[in-house]
Write a structure and sequence with these properties.
With 119 residues, this protein is α+β, with helices and mostly antiparallel strands. Helix content is 21%, strand content 28%. A four-stranded antiparallel beta sheet has the order 2-3-1-4.
Length: 119
């Protein structure tokens, strides 16, 4: 089965888990080293799914772009990372069209539904 793109909306299960997640590593007990973007990407590449991007703001929600074979594999990966239900609650949506200036590809990747407006 081909890998597919998913957009996840995550919410923290409590203000305490949000604060712990957003505490800089060097201020944790015990202190940890901050990861480079490459180290983060290697960590986020799991057995069932891999997180490609994350966006975190000041709201209780944050967002991630996942690549996996199925929606269930995204949830399985979150559980394997011990995030789902312990730190986060998540809603996953498959996205059928994914375009990115960051990818900077010369491939034709724009997708459209075959019939009507639904994939």
């Amino acid at each position: 089965m081909e890998e597919r793109h998913f957009f996840a909306v995550h919410t923290f299960i409590s203000e305490e888990t949000r604060e712990a997640y957003l505490t800089p590593p060097e201020k944790r007990n015990p202190p940890e080293k901050r990861r480079t973007e490459r180290e983060w990407a290697e960590f986020a590449n799991g057995k069932y799914a891999r997180c490609m991007s994350t966006w975190v703001g000041n709201e209780e929600f944050f967002y991630c772009h996942w690549i996996a074979k199925s929606e269930q594999d995204v949830y399985r990966q979150l559980e394997e990372f011990d995030l789902e239900g312990t730190i986060l609650q998540t809603m996953v949506h498959e996205v059928h069209q994914f375009m990115s200036a960051y990818r900077n590809s010369s491939e034709i990747l724009e997708q459209f539904p075959e019939n009507g407006t639904t994939w």
